[in-house]
Design goal:
- The structure is a single chain.
- The chain has four helices and seven strands.
- It has helices at residues 4-19, 45-59, 88-91, 147-163, and strands at residues 35-44, 69-70, 74-78, 82-83, 97-108, 121-133, 141-143.
- Strands 1, 2, 3, 4, 5, 6 and 7 form a seven-stranded antiparallel beta sheet that branches.
- Helix 2 (45-59) crosses helix 4 (147-163).
- The protein has a domain at 37-109 and 120-163: 2-Layer Sandwich (Alpha-D-Glucose-1,6-Bisphosphate, Chain A, domain 4), CATH 3.30.530.
Amino acid sequence: MMNTRNFGLVLLILASLLAGCGGTGGKDSATKPKMFRANLGLTMGDEFNEAVDMMVYSRYRYIRSGDSRNYPNKINVVTEWQARFIFDDERELGIVAVESRIFLTAKLRPGQASSMRGESTYNATLRAENRVKYAEGQSWQPGQITTQARNYFRDIVDDLMQEIKKPY
């Protein structure tokens, strides 16, 4: 059985530990999302690849990474890190440099066979992430998705969805 003195000591230790947990998390709060995600809907394989080429590479100037792969049941597109404009809400966080990269995935719908002509139907998604620097010469670190960054990625999603032909 714990006596009153030991119980008080345990409470004091717990209180001091909990007091250290209430911070805001600094410039890059852990409560902010580090990844933007969006569903692009249904697409055909060829239309997906054409839309990615037109919108992501031509319009937004991202470069395809060597990590991009086409499989019979999945298309994976990864871009290189791309320097971009620092948004005002990022600058307010003290960010002095930002780069983004995009992951596009199209997965063959369940119950469908893959077609060599790109006529199969896929569920397509986009994910995007930032890395940031808070001072020149500092190493890159994961950056949160601010409101303005989310709007930027949302514009890319909207443009892609305009280009992707729906298979129905």
